[in-house]
Amino acid sequence: MFEFSWPWAFILLPLPWLLAKIKPVQHASSTRLRMPSFAHLAALAPKTAQQSRGVNWLEVLIWLLLVIAAANPKWLDDPVALPNEGRDIMLAVDLSGSMTEQDMEYQGRYIDRLSVVKAVLSEFIEQRQGDRLGLILFGDTAFLQTPLTRDLNTVSQMLSEAQIGLVGRATAIGDALGLSVKRFSQREQSNRILILLTDGQNTAGNLDPEDALILAKEEGIKVYTVGVGSDGRGGFSLFGMGGAGGSNIDETTLKHIAKETGGLYFRAKDVAGLQQIYQELDKLEPVSDEAQTFRPQLALFYWPLLAVLALIALTILLKALRGLKQEA
Length: 328
What we know:
- The protein has 328 residues and is α/β, with parallel strands linked by helices.
- The protein has helices spanning 15-22, 36-41, 49-70, 113-126, 152-160, 173-184, 209-218, 251-261, 271-282, 302-327, and strands at residues 2-4, 73-76, 80-81, 85-86, 88-94, 104-106, 109-111, 132-138, 142-149, 193-198, 222-228, 265-268, 287-288, 293-294, 297-299.
- The strands form 5 sheets. The chain has a 6-stranded mixed beta sheet with strand order 9-8-5-10-11-12, with helices on both faces. Strands 1-2-15 form a 3-stranded antiparallel beta sheet.
- A hairpin with a 3-residue loop joins strand 8 and strand 9 (142-149).
- It is elongated, with a radius of gyration of 34 Å.
């Protein structure tokens, strides 16, 4: 559908005629509002009555096009419905030093734990169309990398750029849980899901996991905890002399957090373990928002402006040719 953003701009159409009426009349030729370019071109060639009338109509056309451009014409496509239901999911990813241990099998080879988490979560993020996702990274402390958003590409990009040691080498599980409580408390209508992925136990931070758990339960946050790491193969750690051949995951605490909040605990010894959470989250009831739509817009104001420039350029060229012809 075609429309003008500011249709009131058309009240400017009679402005040149009004100025011509208000301005004191000294000469018949000075009663019209003229374009500066045409006033300059007047010296190029003597005017005839026919030329004067032609310039007058051209000025009228140029003024009309300028007013049309000022009214901001645009084309509106059909309304597009935005997703009005979904889940609010916060991802909390451990960036402690032990996440460098290469004990996770992926595509036929062993790679470090964080790389597997990134690979699996990237696929998980792509499948969350309609959901709002946020990203928390934690080590010595926790910080919000991406607030809850439907811009899944940004969340995926922020996750891919996360690096070990970015927030220290320890594991602040309590801070990660507490930060998610703070962010969810700012949203009234939400089913509030936290997916917490870690390969260790709480060794740092300002908030004890038990205290954070109390806050999470008060806010109705459902926590899915994921213990990442194989316990059947030794690996190599960039932050240590070698792999420990096992895992130091505090499964007791992670299971307790999940159970008390109504979530589930997953032990991700391999890729399949991480992928189990997909089907569980799909069972959750989405939360509906008010229906929202938007209409794609295509601005058209530059077309009348281009037409004005073309008319002025054409007029200048024609008058210059007439002047040269008469001089010859």
